[in-house]
Amino acid sequence: MEKITKDTLISELLQYNENAAEILFRHGMHCLGCPSARGESLEQACAVHGVSVDELVEKLNKHFLLFLRIVTFPWNNL
Description:
mainly alpha
């Protein structure tokens, strides 16, 4: 996954990095295991939960950029 967008499905996001669940939980999205929720895009989920999709996408992309940096260059954390 190159970049997360508002069209990214929740199932794709969690498959890529299950740690995204923590960010989604903090935004009131607690039904991540529901079959219907996993088929929703971030935009659809945000609309249901009254969350700004732009803010959430920005946070998720920052999280994944940091995650990739840590995984790719673990010595940066020493």
